[in-house]
Structure formats: C-alpha cells, structure tokens
Amino acid sequence: MSNVKVVKLITGDEIIGKVIKGQGVIIERPASVFASVNAQGQQQVGISNALSLSTDKKLVIKNEHVLYMYTPTTKLAEAYIANISPLATATTPPLKL
Question: Which DSSP helix (H) or strand (E) runs through 84?
Fold first, then answer.
C-alpha cells in the first residue's frame, strides 16, 4: 500500500491508485474518489473505477494537470484495495468519515 496515493487534478477530480512517476503520473488501477452525504447527514467517501469503460489498467496524467498528491488514510487505502480486488462486489459499502 506504500505506493497508493490520491492525486488531485486541476479539474477538481481526485484519483486514487498505485502511482508510478515517469513521463507524467501513471496510476495503476485508478479509482475516482468522491464525497457524499447520506440520509442521516453523515459525510461518506465513495470509490468507483475510473476506467470502467476501458480495457486499460493504467491512467497517464500529464504533470501540468496535477495539483498535488497525498498519502490516503489507512481506512481509505484499505477501502480502495477492497474495491479494486477481483472479488469486490458492487455492494462494498461507502466509507464513513
């Protein structure tokens, strides 16, 4: 999990995945991170496959499109790992903050 990072893009999107630096930022098995509020008013974080309509497993982002990167909390990293696992199902519950 040491290479799992969240990348904040200039569009405001946040992508989580295993980051490899090279010509730009390469993210293996990228997932979008988004916040929402449930019916009880609690903030939650959701994770969805960023390449769900693609056969690609890596996303290449130009350096100039990256605002910053950070290491996710253990909870978020674990939720990401569970979500990208081949055994993960659509019923993986959202992460509550």
Answer: helix 74-84
Single pTM value for the model = 0.79
SS3 7: strand
Query: How far is it, in rounded angstroms, from Cα 87 to Cα 97?
Result: 24
Residue 6 forms beta bridges with which residues? 16, 70
Report the distance separating Cα 29 and Cα 75, nearest Å: 18
User: Predicted confidence band at 3 (pLDDT cuts at 50, 70, 90)?
Assistant: confident
Of 84, 81, 64, 62, residue with least CA distance to 72: 81
Residue 89: is its pLDDT beyond 60?
no
**Which residue type, as a one-letter code, is found at position 64?**
E
Confidence of residue 28 (pLDDT cuts 50, 70, 90): very high
Instruction: Answer yes or no: are the C-beta atoms of 59 and 49 closer than 8 Å.
Output: no
